[in-house]
Amino acid sequence: MKAKDVVEIIPTKDVFVGDPKAPVTLMEYGDYESEACAKVNEVIGKLLEHYEGKLRFNFRHFPLTKIHQHAMKAAEASLGAAQEGKFWEMHNTLFAHRRRLGAISLREYAKDCGVVNKKFLDNLVNSTYGWQVRSDLLEGLNKGVRDVPAFFINGVLFTGKPTFENLRKGIEEALKQKRKRA
Q1: Cα–Cα–Cα angle for 134, 139, 143, rounded to 5 degrees
Q2: pTM, whole model, 2 decimals?
Q3: 57: Cβ–Cβ under 8 A, 6 or more apart, which residues?
Q4: Distance (Å, rounded) from C-alpha 162 to C-alpha 37?
Q5: Where are the beta strands (DSSP E) in 4-102?
Q6: Tens of pLDDT along 110-119?
Q7: How far apart are CA 146 and CA 144, in angstroms?
Q8: Whether 109 contacts 77, CB under 8 Å
Q9: How many other β-carbons are positioned within 10 Å of the β-carbon of residue 137?
Q10: pLDDT tens digit string along 147-159?
Q11: Residues 74, 127: Cα–Cα separation, whole Å
Q12: Is 155 left (phi over 0), alpha (psi -120 to 50) or beta?
C-alpha cells in the first residue's frame, strides 16, 4: 500500500455540534437501537437550542451488541457518513429509524443524508470503521460506562436521569464553575 492510499479516518471524538468555543461540552455514550438514547436525542436538540453558543455536543458509540444486533453496523454507518461531513444528519436519521438498521437500509439512509461514497456498503461489510467504534466502546468502559445513555459534562460523569431539566441543571453548574475560574 502506497502512502497516498492511506486514508485518515475522522473519529467521533473529533465530531461536535454546537459552538466549537463553547464553555460546556456534553458528551454521550449511546447506541442507535436504544429507545432511551433515541428519546434523549430529542432532549439534546432542545439543550443545544437553549444553550446556543454555550454548549457543544459529542456523541460516542457504545453499541450494546448482546441485545442490539444492528447497533455496531449503525455506529459504523455514522462514521462512514462522518467522513463526508454528514455525521449529524446520519446520527438523527439512525435514531428516527432505529427499528430498521439492516445494511441495505443503512446504505439508503446514507444516500438520503447526502453521502456519495460508492464504497459505503463495502465499508460496512468490511467493518472499515469497526476499530473506531470499538475504541469509543473501550474508552467508555474505562470511564465506567456500563449502560446507555451515559453522559459526561465537561468530562465529569452525569449521574442523574437524563431529562431536559436534570441535564440543564448539570450544564448550569458547569457554567457556574467556568465563570468562577474566569
Answers
A1: 145
A2: 0.93
A3: 16, 17, 18, 25, 26, 27, 28, 44, 47, 48
A4: 10
A5: 16-18, 24-30, 55-61
A6: 999 999 999 9
A7: 6
A8: yes
A9: 21
A10: 999 999 999 999 9
A11: 11
A12: left
Q: Evaluate the CA torsion angle 47, 83, 116, 96 in order and state its sign.
A: negative
* Residue pLDDT, tens place only, 66-81: 999 999 999 999 999 9
Counting residues of the chain whose pLDDT is more than 70, the rounded percentage is: 96
| Confidence band, pLDDT 50/70/90 cuts, at residue 1 | very low
C-alpha cell at 145: 460506562
Nearest C-alpha neighbor of 61 from the set 141, 126, 177 = 141
**What ranges make up the beta strands (E) of the chain?**
16-18, 24-30, 55-61, 150-153, 156-158
Query: How many CB atoms are closer than 10 A to CB 120?
Result: 21
Residue 53 CB coordination number (10 Å): 10
d(CA 149, CA 47): 16
d(CA 155, CA 170): 12
- Residues counted in the chain: 182
* pLDDT computed for residue 8 by the predictor: 77
Neighbours of 10 (CB within 10 A): 16
Tell me phi and psi for residue 83, to 5 degrees: -65, -20
